[in-house]
Design a protein that fits this description.
It contains eight helices and ten strands. By secondary structure, the chain is α/β, with parallel strands linked by helices. It binds 2-amino-2-deoxy-6-O-phosphono-alpha-D-glucopyranose.
Length: 232
Amino acid sequence: MKPLVIIFQSKKELYSHLTNILSEQLKKKPASVLGLSTGKTMLPLYSNPKFRKLNFAKVKTFNHDEYLTPAKNLSLSIYMKKYFISKTNMKKENFHILPHDTANPKKACQDYEKAVANSEVDFQILGLGRNGHIGFNEPGSAFSSKTRVVKLTDSTQKANKIKIKKAMTIGIATILRAKRIVLIATGSQKAKAVKCLLESPASTKCPASVLRTHSNATILLDKKAASRLSSA
Ligand code: GLP
């Protein structure tokens, strides 16, 4: 089954659409389980006034990745507190993220894998790495991969303006278990990755291409991100 691809004239329309489909999801199932993402792509969503007014009272969330670092200020949990938890009626105890400073990352990843599997993600939101990564599943990640410690490529460290070599991420198989997946990509820096996501053969060289095997995946693009597609 092919993913549904929607190309928006403006970023504003894209984030408004994303907020609307999330709103429909929460109306249909107030106790939805959401898979969440960080990065620049997600900021216009988290700062959208309509998004902030959605009812997260019964929602449970799982972030898909986290840096492995003792430095709390570099942890993605800070981002989530600042842009999401403190701005919505989300209950802190229903928010989950991998522990950035754990002494036993392997065990933390196994526990997280179980927790995500037990909760059954209804709606997984994904960004897209410039090299086609999803979560921190860098090129070469097996489509059967689960939550684990990963090495970040130099290009990802550069793109994220960070010097952290290791991270933890839910696996590609973990992502694929979500009932619905919505990937967002904006800007010309993502155009090459969008092309490989949609137009190259599904391969571990471009982890996002695996979304073409999911039965309910939607890809939301702005014009710049879609600019290299042969169909655009
Ligand atoms: C990062 C993160 C992803 C994010 C993606 C795009 O490395 N692991 O969660 O979706 O790459 O990031 P950005 O939106 O900042 O371009």
